[in-house]
Design a protein that fits this description.
The structure is a single chain. This protein is α+β, with helices and mostly antiparallel strands. 26% of the residues lie in helices and 25% in strands. The strands form five sheets. Strands 1, 2, 4 and 5 form a four-stranded antiparallel beta sheet that branches. Strands 3-12-11 form a three-stranded antiparallel beta sheet, with no helix packed on it. A hairpin with a 6-residue loop joins β7 and β8.
Length: 257
Amino acid sequence: MGKIIIKTPEQIEKIRKSCELAGETLLYISEFVKPGVDTEYLDNKIDEYIRKNGAVPAPLGYHGYPKSSCISLNNVICHGIPSKNIIIKEGDILNIDVTTILDGFYGDTSSMFCIGEISPVADKLVKTTKHCLNLGIQQVFPGNYFGNIGFAISRYAQAQGFSVVYEFCGHGVGVEFHEEPQIDHISRRNTGLLMKPGMIFTIEPMINEGKPKADIDEQDGWTARTVDHKLSAQFEHTILVTDTGYEVLTDVSNEYS
């Protein structure tokens, strides 16, 4: 494992600005997410908005990734590649994942969008996943074990009858797109390293209706789907460990303030 970067006050301020832009990008795109719209159109809008605000989209070209955001519908767990052939329809659930690079610093967030009337199981899955994120965030404070994030998330998700994806995780972020530490969303209580003020990382639980395993698309090498074609949901925020607890850097709606 590499070294966890403790961010300086100057770095934190710049990461905070990038995180605010990432959060604002999700708010901006929300008005365009409706039936009949293709996901490439949404990706183009996201790219345009990020660049208009003096930043660049981090996913574009990252290890060859071809688009500016990840948009994952229904049974896609993560890394869904936007396409003009993927049309949003009534009853869909989708995750839009945005990462910005502003002044050289990264902000990373994602949210679920529900299209019209969704099924009861989809509704329960989305609400459970959001609560899992909240439970994980509540575990962020100096001196706590990183494992307690995954413990809180997995205990709740499984109690609701869902499974937790273990092949993808949260990660340190800010100076680079992906840094140490790895934030597992399923783990044992009181395990792992201890949190310290100045650490910044994402919590991004991916919760499945059925089996937890992912199946990576052989053709595009990116799209991760559920192995049983059942639904998946994800929410993500970038979190700073403060002297007394946490700050949700990508929270532009003041949900956590």
